[in-house]
Amino acid sequence: MQKILIILAAVLSLTAAGLGFLNRSNLIKVKDAKAAVTTERDELNKKNLSLSSELKVSNEKSALATTDSEGKAATIIELTEQRTKLTSQLADVQKESADKDASVTQMKTDTAAKDARITELETKVNATSQPGNDPTVELKKQLEEKDILAASLQTKLKDQESQLSALKEREAQRRTKSMRNGLEGRILAVNPSWNFVVLSLGDRNGVVNNAEMLIKRGSQLIGKVRITSVEPSTSIADIVANSVRQGLAVQPGDTVIYTGPGDDAEVKLP
């Protein structure tokens, strides 16, 4: 009986030792796994912080880009409205000039008819003024009325001719105004839908309508623009059709330069 108890005690001791070893091994594994999880969590936290920082920077850049884009869009809309308004004003001036021309022509025609009538009346007066004949009161009255009417028409004709001369003088000054060779600026905005650009040059810089300017990017020639509307510090220009090199596009920041009328420098398409 004592031997059996000793054997049982030995078996229990061995079992307890085996269980202790297994528990210690499992505890080590659990600690290692916990350490690995902690390390992985720290790495994920670092990545999360890095991504959050990048996202913040990206959001700031996106906000700036959106603000800049909205500003440029507002500028394009405003300048487009100004361009439409100026085009309408130019059409009104041209119509007014044409109306003045027509009015002057009509005045001249009326004056010629009145002169012929006056000559006819003077002939009748002279005929009735022969010896033995007295001019009639009615004929004198008609002659006086015609003289007054002729004077009035002459006055109106002079006023019309003066107004027409002033209009033609303003138009001639606008057409003969020239730009300085080498005048250089840059493109502020581009509207590809309407094929026009906004330039950093205006009337203060000597820019005039219908002048052509070259577009350059560094030393590379991109194309041409033609001025269509001039403001004090900015202007609007159309991109000349088929002048932009194939594979290129006009961009904000490109340089524009005026090299004079009839310049030999042309944009040659590949």
Characterise this structure.
The structure is a single chain. It is built from two helices and six strands, in the order ααββββββ. By secondary structure, it is of the alpha+beta class. Among the domains are: 93 residues; 74 residues, Thrombin, subunit H, CATH 2.40.10. Helix 1 packs antiparallel against helix 2. The longest helix is centred in the N-terminal third of the chain and has 127 residues. The C terminus is likely disordered.
Short description, anyone?
The chain has 270 residues and is an alpha+beta fold.
Which terms summarize this structure?
rod-shaped, Thrombin, subunit H, 2 helices, 62% helix, six-stranded antiparallel barrel, 270 residues, alpha+beta, 6 strands
In N-to-C order, the SSE pattern is: HHEEEEEE
Distance between the termini: 113 Å
Radius of gyration from the alpha-carbon trace, in angstroms = 47 Å
Q: Number of helical segments?
A: 2
What is the typical, i.e. mean, pLDDT?
79
Percent helix, as a range, is 55-70%
> How many beta-strand runs?
6
Any idea what the shape is?
Answer: rod-shaped
For the largest beta sheet, what order do the strands appear in spatially?
Answer: 1-2-5-4-3-6
The class by helix and strand makeup works out as alpha+beta
Largest sheet: 6 strands, antiparallel, barrel
Low-pLDDT residue intervals, each spanning 5 or more residues: 263-270
Assess the beta-strand content as a share of residues: 5-15%
